[in-house]
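Escalation from tier 1.

The customer reports that the assembly of two entities below gives different structure tokens on two consecutive runs. Tier 1 could not reproduce it. I'm attaching the input and our single run for tier 2 to review.
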Amino acid sequence: MKNSRFIKGLAVAATVSLLAAACSSDDGGEKGGETGKASGDTTITWWHNSNSDPGKAYYEQVAKDFEADHAGVHIKIEALQHEDMVTKLEAAFQSGDLPDIYMERGGGELADHVSAGLTKDITEASKDTIAKLGGNVAGWQLDGKTYGLPFSMGVVGFWYNKAMFADAGITSTPTTMTELYQDIETLKGKGIEPISVGAGDKWPAAHYWYYTALRQCSQDVLQKAVTSLDFQDPCFIKAGDSLKELISKEPFNSGFLSTPAQSGPTSASGLLATGKVAMELAGHWEPGVMQGLTEDGKGLGENTGWFPFPAIDGGQGDPAAQLGGGDAWSVSAKAPDAAVDFLNYLLSDKVQTGFAERDMGLPTNPAANSAVKDPALAELLKVRDAAPFIQLYFDTAFGTSIGGAMNDEIALMFAGQASSQDIVDAIQSAADEAK
Amino acid sequence: MADKSPASLDATLSATNRTTHTSAGDLASPAGGAGPDRRKTKPNYRLGVQAAAFIAPALILFLLFVVWPMIRAVQFSLYKWKGFGPLVDFVGLKNYVSVLTNDVFTGALVHNLIIVVASILIQLPLGLLIALLLNRKMWGRGALRTIVFVPYVLAEVIVAVVWFQLLQPKYGAIDTMLNAIGLSGPAQGFLGTPKYALATVMVVLTWKYLGFAVILFLAGLQGVPEELTEAAQIDGASWWQTQRKITVPLLGPTLRTWAFLSMVGSLQLFDMVWILTKGGPANATTTMVTFLITEGTKRSNFGIASAASVILFIIALIFALLYQRFVMRRDNPDYEPRKKRSKR
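Tier 1 run:
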């Protein structure tokens, strides 16, 4: 009896002391880091998703240039595939151990991070850059304070293979759904799969509903819905009906329900890049993604074409309104001041021009606009700047909780297992839960 | 065999205890003229230090990485929490209600149960047949054993990626082969068609885990004494009769252990499904773990994900306890019929 009690006591004592040791060594590590900073050496960690060349090499060069101008500053880069980066960032938000500079997509996600005190207010430190970027920053501002600087903003539209369209005898890109349906029939008649969609990852499928909602609902209704989280307007049902009509034309690649968005040659982007399908609905990132998925690193090359999502007859939305969003760099709350300097450098005329020259995205700094040489991206830039308003991707705008439920239900419609009403109900019930 | 390990572990432990006792006693006695009382306390002290030194590292790791996360999961499951920021929004059992009334979760539970049953129904007879075959002396036995076992050695992720590529609709190897002989796979592919997806996952799982069953059964077969088979043969039993009446019954403990491992693995299935289908298409292949990963990491509903993980834990625990109680009980060395037990 005595014996076992003693052992228990000892075990507890040993556990406690080891636990204490483990915790204290943690503290020691952090303190060591602090003193390192004080002595003049600063390390900035930076996560980005340009994990293939030329973007990857360019960002390494940018970091080197900055290090050369700022003695004692080291930049530690981690280039991750987009999905991996998002997953890793989620874990980082949870632990509070964020990289100093990371990607922030605005909307409900940013609001959550700011209210949890994870993101740095850069209103003062980046005043000049904010002035230069103008209205583009609006999506990353809350209560008059700025929490991120967008480095690429674009809109979603159809990327298409010009050679395939020409072979099929399609001379002009569709501007209405009726024309799109005709083109789908023409392409199918030629034995070409018209559209690839990565419904396995859900969000690429969801973008279709976002667009039909954007065409069916007026700007007023949409913007109210984003804040009030009330989706009872009949236009949301019509959005589902329009999508159902498109799906009924069976325009998608075989196996689209399990097709991933961007990973590998049989992903939706891979199928377009390798000439297996004629079109894909995707954002401004598409040329960069396609380049990474082809052996010669050129993607579709000069066959890359772009046209905006067609108008829907009888819809209340402005056909020129676009669905889009951007990627911004944000600085985590605990980051050193040098990180904000580097952030401003990333948005400088020089870096943004180089960014645009390499087709890495659509620059937000107007000084770099003329550097966009790719004709398809230039076309997209024109549409972006002419849009009366750009609706942020709904899943980003609503945050992951509502966004996830919405995307899942829309993907179910692609599988023929959800009605227009089901989508609205799923969004509404997730929204009510989140309120 | 694994089922006997608790017993053998006990034996080793008690053996160690005995040795420590005697050696400690031996050390104590030359110290001279100590009374029986002193002799008792001193070895106990040494024993305590030794035991603590040996147990502490494992115990600490266990507490840190098993017990503590479990306590935290239960705590998270009672809150509405986005994964960061303070834990303030206490919701009681609401997360549990929303998990249990969620069609996707109940669907996932059904899928898990189908996989539990199908794994045993398919792999048990198949594995047993192959093990019996490979237990006979024949040409190329070693090579065949290796081939059967190789898929099990491969990492689950690698297997899933390879099969994902093979199963690509239109461009994958399987569809190409089917086309070559004039057949065609489903238009949406095997993984993209809701009604075939789960069966396809089942095929890949069988391919991967059959080797494990075979190797366990083969090991069990080594424990079946040859004299019994010989005796049966002398009595005129055919090969099939020998296998059915002698080998399989004696293989019982191995089969029961394998079925248990297979069951627990099926309940916690994740990697394979995540890479092959991500739980899709249209939730046709969700498992409880893919559900909680989606809720947690994709949607940041950590409260709901934690509640789902607690429910999964309870379900697995109930399975394990029932199995131990009703099936594995007979494998205990001190297993006796009930009447005798109640006397104790």
